[in-house]
Amino acid sequence: MRFGVPRSLSPSPVRGKQRRRSTYGLYSESESDSDNYDLVDSESADSDSDSGSENSYLRVSELSTTRSAKRPSRRSVTDAELRHIEDTVATIRLRTRHHDPYEEWEQQTRKDAFRTARKTLTESESQWHDEQDRARAQEREQQDVLHAQQIAEVQNHLNALRLQRQSEEQKLREAWKARDRMLWERIEGVIKLEEDKFKRKLEEEKRIKAEEEQRRRLEEERRKMEAERKKKEEEEARRKKEQQEREEAEAKQRQEEEERTRLERLKTEKDQRQIMGLSTADEDWQNTRAMLHKLKNECIKVVKANKALKSEWNSLRRQITPKIGQLTNDSEAIRRITTQLVQICAPPNAPPRDPRLYATLLSSLAKAILMQAETEVTAEPRTADPLSQVTFGLIESLVGFADIFYAKLVQRIGGWAIPIVVPPQDFDGRRWGSDDERRKVMGYRKSANGEDIESTSEYCSRVAGIMRVYFSVLKVKPLTKPLGPMFQSLRYWVWFARIVGGQYRSLLESPVAPFLIHTALDVMGTDARDMWGLQWIKMLGLVYQGVTEGFGTNGANEPLYIGGQTPEGKSSRMRVQLEIERIMSTTRLKPATLFS
């Protein structure tokens, strides 16, 4: 709080030094507060305050008197002004003597906080000193334990060194004893060695003398026996030469007779095959490859090069594929789809198509059927029945479709449809350009991922699916006229005779063989038994022996089984065995009794 007093007019133009306002020579509250931090007693503070107030009052009175003396006012102070001044001085005196309870509480609180801090500091220092004493005592204990442990280790090490020294001394003593013993043994051994050497020398001289006598006697006997042996060998050589000449003449005569008989037999068989419409496996392979070559170069390439024929071919081909995919196991649907496919390839009320377009269209139709067999029949074997019936109807109705379908069949699965091992050259004598070309001719295709060659299991499943359709076509009995030679029931017997006959041993060792044998037996095994009777049972006996006992032995005299030792071959071999036992279950003789 500030107080002001009206000031008298000064007659002098020169003013004195300016003083701070509202102080009147008194200590301000801020100065008083800063002094309180010196932590002095409250009584001395009160006394200082009282003396300060009194001094202030005196200074004010003296100031007033001095100014009155030095500067006489132009006018006299009125009573009102004097009363105002006195009231102001009384107010200031009252203000300076006032005691504030908050200030006293604040001062007391500061003193209590100081004492508390001093006490806390003392306790903290005491506790720290105690912890230091405990730490030093614990460290001394640890050092004592460590010293005791080190002393024990040193003592143990000294004991170990003492024991080691004693052991080494003992070993040295034993080594010296052994050395002495070996030295004496060596001396005795040298003496004995010299004695034995002298004895052996005497014995060697006796032996040499005896051997010399023996060798002289044997040499005389050997010369006599050598003379007799040479005489006998000359006689034996002369006799063998005469006998060999006689045997060679007989063998040559017999070989000529056999060759003449074989040629006559082959000529007779060829005439019989021509009469019956049969052929050998090599002839079937040559004819099929020639058909594929002719179909590719003389028909398909020409159609693709001709824009009009290619457009018509693409249009008709797009009609074939959906109809094959719509096929179901329904007699009405089979007849309808067969009729539609025949009308697409050979319209009844239209002029005949271009022969090259017609052959190319039949090739597309055969490929569509085989692709359907690869996908559908492989997944579900029962779909082979409607597909085989449609194929049978197309072979009956379309001229030339039988040969093209069989050629495409061989193209998709290699020589398994004949069956035959793919030769190292084509029908025209050209050798295969690479292993990839030969594998393609054998029927291998890209795998499902489209990068590598398909695996053995994929190849077996795909070939079995296609052959199931082929065997199903052989099973169908024609009502009007017989089909071509490749689709008659006799081909079923020919297929088994070729694969079991042993001419192509590698076919039986392949894991594909038991797959196809099981497929053939599953489709037509029972019908073949009813058709050929005991002859078919003998054929089954050979197959049963090949899957149970083996059809031969290898170089290590181990049995060779149909399908080899691959996992696919083993599983298929078991299925063949079960299928033969199922077929023979309806006969009077059991498989084990009949095949033994």
Automatic annotation (TrEMBL):
One of its GO terms (cellular component) is cytoplasm. It is found in: Nucleus, Nuclear pore complex. The keyword Nucleus applies. Its main location: nucleus. GO terms for molecular function: inositol hexakisphosphate binding; phospholipid binding; translation initiation factor binding. Keywords: mRNA transport, Nuclear pore complex, Nucleus, Protein transport, Translocation, Transport. Residues 1-82, 118-143, 210-271 are annotated as: Disordered. The keyword Nucleus applies. Residues 30-51 have a biased composition (Acidic residues). One of its GO terms (biological process) is protein transport. InterPro entries: GLE1, GLE1-like_sf. Belongs to the GLE1 family. This is mRNA export factor GLE1. It comes from Amanita thiersii Skay4041.
